[in-house]
Amino acid sequence: MWARSIFTAFIFSVTAIQAWAQTAPAAPSPTPGPAWHPAAPGADNGVVPPTATTTPAPLSPAVPAFTTPAVPGAASGVNPFLAPPPAVLRRSLRVTAGSGTLPNEQGQVWREYDISPYTARVTTTKRPEQGIVDWILRETGYEVWHTEPLGILSASPRILRVYHTPQMQAVVADIVDRFVSSEAETRTFSLRIVTIDNPNWRVTAHRTLRPIPTQTPGVSAWLLPKEDAAVLLSTLQRRSDYREHSSPHLLVNNGQATVVSALRGRPFIRDVRPRPEAWQGYDELRSQIDEGFSLEFNPLLSTDRRSIDAMVKCQIDQVEKLVPVMLEVPTQTSPRQRARVEVPQMSYFRFGERFRWPTDQVLLLGLGIVALPVPVDSTPTLAGLPLPLPLPSSPSRADLLVIIESKGPVAETPGAASAAPGAGQLPRR
Known about the structure:
By secondary structure, this protein is α+β, with helices and mostly antiparallel strands. It contains seven helices and 16 strands. The protein has helices at residues 2-23, 86-92, 116-119, 129-140, 166-180, 202-205, 226-237; strands at 109-114, 152-155, 159-164, 186-196, 210-212, 220-225, 242-244, 249-253, 258-274, 282-301, 307-328, 338-358, 361-371, 381-382, 385-386, 397-409. A hairpin with a 3-residue loop joins β2 and β3.
């Protein structure tokens, strides 16, 4: 009985709706408007292009019309969602156009230096002008270009532009002249990187060495005539603990840097990652450390070729040992399984200093007893055969010496024609 009542009520409701629809006033026809235009590129981002116009059809009076709010920037075609909000910029940053002229309260002047006679001859690097900028910053200091008075230093492949005081312009002119007058002259240098296990070589060589000041603690520097340097090198080479780690001859453009290096990759297990589908239930995450040495040499001759300014940088990375750590990596088949990871125990050496010495002298640097520049295997041996059991041993250390000698221009150096720039760089091992 109750089902029949519900069905009768439903039929009555449908009949009433149909009757109301037949008596409702018809919606007015749309007002003719402009022709329809296809969507322009970028129209899907909510911004209406300036050329696109649309006129929506009027809705029934019973339904209120909905008006889309105006989007800032829509009239100019700028995407408002990509532009920064102007209100935030005004609150957090104040920017003015300034006076439109460069400040010169301390007499700053603008100068442009033609460096093309130098840069046009350097073919060993894509940006030879960077060498000029680097030497200017070494001579003047970095802070004078970033504080008061206002200074500008900018270099292109042909022009060096400088805005600073006349005193600073004189310093810059002297540095630029040392580059341009040489016309990127290529010179030969003898650069030897030597290690000796025992520093007692100083006992016999001390009387021939003339010490010069250094800024790095633990580092010593000496000057000696070329004849005495040849005798000292011959004496060192007769020692059983003498080892040389570089090619002795380098061809270097004046003012440009060259690098001598010997590096070797040392792989190790950095971490493990659980992976149920793997046969052992985890993956080993391997990494690599480059160990060895790298020495950068950047010489700059004076205009009269009687003295050398050189920046010498040396870095040594040595893996003393890999400390093992056992991590628990349980699986359903092996609930007590463990995996090995390794933590490198490293030894670092960093050195960087600028030196000046006469071209007829030899510069000898004693960098102290540091990590051995060339990686060595840590497995102990006896008579050339590896021992079955590891023995306690300390990391390899040696007295590191760097011997630098100017051999003159390439044309004056015997056998230099067969050499090439960068010949002192050892292959990566």
